[in-house]
Amino acid sequence: MQLRQVALLVSALCWCTPAAAQDLDRASPESVGMSSAGLRAATDALQTHIDDGDIAGVVAAVARHGKLVYFEALGQRDLEAGDPMPEDAIFRLYSMTRSITSTAVMLLWEEGRFQLDDPIADYLPQFADQRVFLDASAPDLERTRAREGDITVRQLLTHTSGIGSRSSQIYRANAVRLRSISLAEMVDNVAAMPLFEDPGTRFRYGVSTTILGRLVEVWSGQPFEEFLEQRIFEPLGMTDTVFWADDERANRLASVYRPDRDTGQLRPYAIEQVPFTERPPLIEGGVGLLASVTDFLRFSQAFLNRGTLDGTRLLSENTVDLMLQNHVPTRAMPIGGGYMAGSGWGLGFNVILDDGAYSWPVGEGEYWWDGSSGTRFSIDPEHGIVTVIMAAVSPSRGGGFREEWKTLVYGAIEDPGN
Fold this sequence. Notes:
With 418 residues, the protein is α+β, with helices and mostly antiparallel strands.
């Protein structure tokens, strides 16, 4: 039987300054079994990536056993302005938004607002009669068939709904996802498009999590951004996690760069038509949030603590444990090639099933994800480590700066059992 927890009262943290709200207790690396010299090597590698023009700047943090043992801001926030990268820089999270949205969903699950295997058409009736493309590799609106099975909430959480990606050609051609439309309009657009396959039959990374944001509104009776602020950001002291950067936050928003195809030199790159310094009509639970490294470190630490931070309980331990299981059905495994062949998908996170598929070090039971403009977080229960690294580069690889940094961070572990 599915675990069901009683509703949890989420209390807000006491009012304090943003810096105090965000800081974890600091400690020396040696006090938690890590090497200062090893972590300096990780910093040196990031600086080399900056000097080589892979990234303009970066902010990175490591916490072990709840103590902040590493925090570095390097390079520049904006190359044209010559602004150095501040420690409280704000970055576009893109897909890291999904873990936060999924957490919002599970808060409402704990309250009994829905069951994980409920058809989403119970709450969004426009999905009741959605059809399926006859050929997912060449989708044609004139060639569809009846759907077998209903999309469930669990399938939205695990990207097994059959819904497509914001970058798919047919979604782009039909303007399914635009930051200039409302969340309700985008949901209607997705429901009007056929699915790529029947629900539950394949892992297809796409806009399913944005649909979850709309469901949060339906279940809670609140605008999505208000729910996140009241139920996640305020309780966890996440003072710089927002859907747009206005006023002074705009001066801390890291500019995105892309290597020039001919010279390789970093050039400013606008990923979105509606800039992140304006309130977008689309409040997007899939890719819409901005945050600082310190904010996401607090979010990640709450999960490593199995749902609690600084005396505030966000989720029950059983709910966190449930979220970190692989929920992708056997028929839809594996979920991809490369490291994804060693991964499953929980309720909001990539969960590592086979560390041998990874080319960088990971711990047993580790879960993580990243964003398409150079962000990444990982939560490692085996070693008690949280890592968060953020840059602003598209494509996000940036010369492999995230993988090399994490390899060196783990090379700095002197006492694995500390």
